[in-house]
Design a protein that fits this description.
CATH superfamily of the domain at 54-225 in chain A: MetI-like
CATH superfamily of the largest domain in chain B: P-loop containing nucleotide triphosphate hydrolases
Order of helices and strands of chain A: HHHHHHHHHHH
Number of helices of chain B: 10
Bound molecules: adenosine-5'-diphosphate, magnesium ion
Shape of chain B: elongated
Distance between the termini of chain B: 47 Å
CATH topology of the largest domain in chain B: Rossmann fold
CATH class of the domain at 54-225 in chain A: Mainly Alpha
Oligomer: heterodimer
Number of domains of chain B: 2
Order of helices and strands of chain B: HEEEHEEEHHHEHEHEEHHEEEEEEEEEEH
Helix content of chain A: over 70%
Radius of gyration of chain B: 24 Å
CATH architecture of the domain at 54-225 in chain A: Orthogonal Bundle
CATH architecture of the largest domain in chain B: 3-Layer(aba) Sandwich
Strand content of chain A: under 5%
Helix content of chain B: 25-40%
Largest interface: A-B, 19 and 25 residues
Radius of gyration of chain A: 22 Å
Strand order of the largest sheet of chain B: 6-7-8-3-9-10
Amino acid sequence: MKSIAKKIYIALIILFLYAPIGILMVLSFNESKTRAKWGGFTLKWYLALFQNEEILRALFNTLLIAMLSSLIATVIGTVACIAMTGMKRRAKSVMMGITNIPMLNADIVTGISLMLLYISLGIKFGMGTILLSHITFNIPYVILSVMPRMKQLNVSTYEAALDLGSSPLHAFFRVVFPDLLPGILSGFLMAFTMSLDDFIITHFTKGVGVDTLSTKIYTEIKKGIKPEMYALSSLIFVAVLTLLVLINLSPAEKKKAE
Amino acid sequence: MERVLQNKIANDNGGFTLVKKELIQLIDISKSFDGQMVLDELHLSIHENEFVTLLGPSGCGKTTTLRILGGFTGPDKGRVVFDGQDITQIPPNKRPLNTVFQKYALFTHMTIAENIAFGLKIKKKPKSYIDDKIRYALKLVNLDGYENRMPDSLSGGQQQRIAIARAIVNEPKVLLLDEPLGALDLKLRQEMQYELIRMKNELGITFVYVTHDQEEALTMSDTIVVMNQGYIQQIGSPESIYNEPENAFVADFIGDSNIIPAIMIEDKLVSILGTRFACVDTGFGNNRPVDVVIRPEDVILVEPSEGIIQGVVSHLIFKGVHYEMEVQACGFEWLVHSTTLFPVGKEVGIRVDPFNIQIMNKPESEDEEAVIIDI
Ligand SMILES: Nc1ncnc2c1ncn2[C@@H]1O[C@H](COP(=O)(O)OP(=O)(O)O)[C@@H](O)[C@H]1O
Ligand SMILES: [Mg+2]
């Protein structure tokens, strides 16, 4: 009895969580333009999507921003972790606090404050400001996933490499980096996902005429909902889901190897 | 290989005939961490081809001394001289020394062969040379055929041997070892002690070895440096450290001992617990307070009438080779090792041969006093 109740409970949770996305995906294959009725299976909205220049442009922007911002954030975040490891305990915990707070901040606060910052510095809105913003909110995620690896690191392997004649840089890339790599990779993927996913911060920092997929969907929907948008949203969902599965898989595999 | 051969020849010609040259000098090294003095004007010379052990309780600054030698920690004050050249400012990767770290510090994502080849690849040695070296080093540490294993698949003792192999293929003039056997169990540790002595003789290089285990130090070293609280307490051969400790700390740290306050009446005569004992030491002055050290195996138990002083056996433990007894005599608890059993409660006499009474100056400064209280 109890276990059946449990299963129903879980099923209900999953239903409520995934029903909206499920409906969205079903509608993206709907021949009929109205939401009310099923007009048969079609891929035409997906085809239309890939013929729409503006959407392709937005897709390109999204991927470019996600790629660049997560790469740069990964480098900055990793370097920050190394620097923090060398700090005294007090300074380290203060730094960790400072880097963690932006993650807890509401996106809208981050978005508006970045917008105000750019205005007050006289920076022109466009791809540049989006990129800067994404790097900013991505760094904490990288730090969060690299730091635990850093703590596990055996400092004496670095010293052993120096002892055997490595320069500090060579010792880092040959000995420390391979140990950090799983953390760096998952930090990169996390940052990439966050960047793909973001709407609010991009919305406030993008300026006119530049769009990523999420802001494009928003503008399109204001004009009236087109089934292409269902198709686009479904694709984004699948992409993000895949990335999340990847992130969760990598540490599991690592554990198995150990 | 060549080096080993040369050494063999040198040894065959009689190892003792070579005049030993000073290879390393630590000159007035001071170091503090967070305002706390860890090393205070430490001065130490290490000779070529010597097995030197830094011995002392945990926290006395042994690792710090070794790290200053290796270049991983810079001294606040003082100089490190190697082969006549000041290397204080030279980074670890440019120093002609190699280190075996306490926790192995093997590169876990590389095979054993890659680990051993690490230093040689940096020096851009040809592949055939590297392969020869790997084979030679694995043979030296008794792990032939382990080239393609990963470090995690080896036991602790095996990993430690690989760490040694990885260091010695670089042909350092000096090998620094920080408690390399600390993590191994007793049996393996004793085995590895002999292995290390064998390797040192085969390689003919200088070993600077850190341990807090006095037995290990006595077994392996040519020279022992006894340290406490950042000061060197005594430097000498294992025999001299054991038989002629210079102060109560050394006497107490190196093996069991009876340390008894006494008065030096005149040369070769000392009053211990109010009774006069003949001894062999001179030059302490007349009626001076001193400490005497008598090793437990040097206390001879006899019939009460034959003893210089009399007492009663209060404790008895069988230790395998000998009995360990405590004898209450003249208000002092004497620790005695003897192969003859005297049961608890038995009245006994105590005798000590004059040459087994070691006289030590009482500590003068407050600093040294503190050392003794700390024991
Ligand atoms: N990096 C460091 N920072 C602060 N204190 C240290 C550091 N390294 C060593 N110490 C302190 O210096 C003292 C001596 O340490 P160490 O040389 O490791 O002793 P040993 O090896 O003899 O046990 C200890 O009190 C230790 O806490
Ligand atoms: Mg130590």
